[in-house]
Hints:
140 residues, mainly alpha
Amino acid sequence: AVLSHEIAHGVARHFAERLSKLQVANVGLFLLSIFFDVSMRTTSMLYKFGVELPGSREHETEADILGLKIMSRACFKPEAAARLWHSMDRVESRKSIPGWASTHPTHQSRLSKIEQELPKANEIREQAGCENIQSFWRAY
């Protein structure tokens, strides 16, 4: 689940998208700082909480869903991703960073989205012919 998630970031070109947003944002931040905030503290906070963090959470969610599809097509059981986020939630439930201040969605949010996508992921796995692979390995 984790490996397919990271592969999904590359497939979706999240790093390139982030760089292009940053270039556009830098121009806007510069203009705002000239006219309103010479120190750039306020404008950089606006960028961080208004653009960067929400964009990062969006990329993480997209990578979760695309990663689920990748692992399903590779004949891994998509339910493993849901079990991973159940475990992560249980282990890290003590940490309480507010969702709006985090680079990643909450574990509960991720789990909910993955569970919504499980039927599609299982369909992808069935279409990939994974039963043939499993019967092959049972013979050994």
